[in-house]
Amino acid sequence: MSNDTVRQWKELLKKKLASAQKDERTEEEKKEDELRLFTKYYTEWRGGDKTDSSYKNIPRFYYRLPADDEILLQKLREESRAVFLQRKSRELLDNEELQNLWFLLDKNQVLPMAGEEAMINYDSFLKVGETAGEKCKQFFTARVYAKLLHNDPYGRISIMQFFNYVMRKVWLHQTRIGLSLYDVAGQGYLRESDLENYILELIPTLPQLDGLEKSFYSFYVCTAVRKFFFFLDPLRTGKIKIQDILACSFLDDLLELRDEELSKESQESNWFSAPSALRVYGQYLNLDKDHNGMLSKEELSRYGTGTLTSIFLDRIYQECLTYDGEMDYKTYLDFVLALENRKEPAALQYIFKILDMENKGHLNVFTLNYFFRVRNTVSERMGQDTRQQEITLLFFSFGQGDTVTSILIDLNGFWTYENREVLVANDDSNTDMDDT
C-alpha cells in the first residue's frame, strides 16, 4: 500500500472521529457507509475496477425451463424443438435411398454365396460406403462390420443382415423422433397423457385396428398405455423415458399391427391387438354386475376361475387406488397385467406389495400364516396334511416367485402345486397312449 493511500486513510479517519459526536445516523447506516468506503479504497488499492472476469468465458450449461406464465418462451422452445426434430428427420435415409443402398450392396456382392445368402467382403463394403452417400457413412465402419462378422471362412458378412441392421437403426431413429414430438416437456420422457395422444393418433395407421369402433378408442388407448406404464414405470412416477420405450419390445408388438396378414395366434398373444383389448374390456364388463362402471370386491372375486382368496382380495382393495371402495378400469388393468405376467419383476413387485401387509419389505412368519389360513382350511377339507407345508422366500431368489404367489393368493394355484406330481404323471400317461 502506497504512502499516499495511507495518508488519505488517516485524514479520513480524523474527519470521521471529529464528526462522530455530531453524527445522527443509525448504527446500521454507519456500518453500511464504512463498508462502502472500505470497498472503494480497497478496489483502488488493487488496481481500480480491473477485476478478474475469466468466469465469463465458461460456457453456459444450464437453461431453466420457461415458467407456466412465460407463454412466449414456451412457444419459442416448442418451435425450436420442432425445427431440430425436422432436421434430424431429414438426416435419415428415405425409401429411395434405402433402395439405392440395396442396389449397391447387391451389385458388389462377393462370390461364392453362403447357402442362399449374398455376401460382401470388407474391401467391397468400404467401396459401397464411399458411393452410397453422406447419410450412409455412419453405417460403413469397421465396428459395424465386425459386429456382423460370424463364421464365414472368407471373412465376409451377409448383405441381408447388414441391410436389416441399417433398416433397424433407421426405424429406431424415426420412432424416437416420432415419440419426441409428443414430449411436451422436452426432457426425454413421456407422461401418461403424452403417450395416450401418441397411440390415439397411431390407431388410423394400424390396419389390424380398422374394425374398432371410435367409441372404443378411449378404452383401447387406456388398455395399451397401461402396459407401458405398468412395466416401465415401477416407481409410479407418472412418466417413462423414451429410451426405455425404444429398448423394450412393447412398441414392436404395437407396430406389428401394421401387418395386414397377422395370424390369429399372433393377435391373441399380442396385448395391443383388437381381440386382446376387447377380451380384457369384455371381462371387465362381465364382472360389473350392477353396471355402474366400477368393480366391487364381491364382483372382482369372480375374476378368472373365481378362486382368488378372500384375504388377497381384501388386501387388493386396501392397497390399490379405489373410489368409494370400488375399482375403476385403469386399476383393473394393473391387476390383470400382474396376474397374467407373474414371472415378470414388475408383476411380482405388484403382488409382493399386496402380500407385504406390514410394509417391511419382506414376508415374515405372521404374514405367511395369515395368507395360509384360508389355504389350510381348504386343504383340511380335502384331507391333506398341512403340518409339513412350508414356503421360504428363497423361492423368489431362484425364479419361483410366480409359484409362491400362486400358492398364496389362488386356491386353484395351490391345488395345482400340491398335485403337480400327479398331474405330470397323468400327462406322461396320456403321451404314452398317444404314441401307441
From TrEMBL:
<dbReference type="GO" id="GO:0005737">
    <property type="term" value="C:cytoplasm"/>
</dbReference>
<dbReference type="GO" id="GO:0005813">
    <property type="term" value="C:centrosome"/>
</dbReference>
<keyword id="KW-0479">Metal-binding</keyword>
<dbReference type="GO" id="GO:0045579">
    <property type="term" value="P:positive regulation of B cell differentiation"/>
</dbReference>
<keyword id="KW-0539">Nucleus</keyword>
<dbReference type="GO" id="GO:0035303">
    <property type="term" value="P:regulation of dephosphorylation"/>
</dbReference>
<keyword id="KW-0677">Repeat</keyword>
<dbReference type="InterPro" id="IPR041534">
    <property type="entry name" value="EF-hand_13"/>
</dbReference>
<dbReference type="InterPro" id="IPR011992">
    <property type="entry name" value="EF-hand-dom_pair"/>
</dbReference>
<protein>
    <recommendedName>
        <fullName>Serine/threonine-protein phosphatase 2A regulatory subunit B'' subunit gamma</fullName>
    </recommendedName>
</protein>
<keyword id="KW-0963">Cytoplasm</keyword>
<dbReference type="GO" id="GO:0030865">
    <property type="term" value="P:cortical cytoskeleton organization"/>
</dbReference>
<dbReference type="GO" id="GO:0046872">
    <property type="term" value="F:metal ion binding"/>
</dbReference>
<dbReference type="Pfam" id="PF17958">
    <property type="entry name" value="EF-hand_13"/>
</dbReference>
<keyword id="KW-0106">Calcium</keyword>
<dbReference type="InterPro" id="IPR039865">
    <property type="entry name" value="PPP2R3C"/>
</dbReference>
<dbReference type="GO" id="GO:0001782">
    <property type="term" value="P:B cell homeostasis"/>
</dbReference>
<feature type="domain" description="PP2A regulatory subunit B'' EF-hand">
    <location>
        <begin position="184"/>
        <end position="260"/>
    </location>
</feature>
<dbReference type="GO" id="GO:0005819">
    <property type="term" value="C:spindle"/>
</dbReference>
<dbReference type="GO" id="GO:0043029">
    <property type="term" value="P:T cell homeostasis"/>
</dbReference>
<dbReference type="GO" id="GO:0005634">
    <property type="term" value="C:nucleus"/>
</dbReference>
<dbReference type="InterPro" id="IPR018247">
    <property type="entry name" value="EF_Hand_1_Ca_BS"/>
</dbReference>
<dbReference type="GO" id="GO:0000226">
    <property type="term" value="P:microtubule cytoskeleton organization"/>
</dbReference>
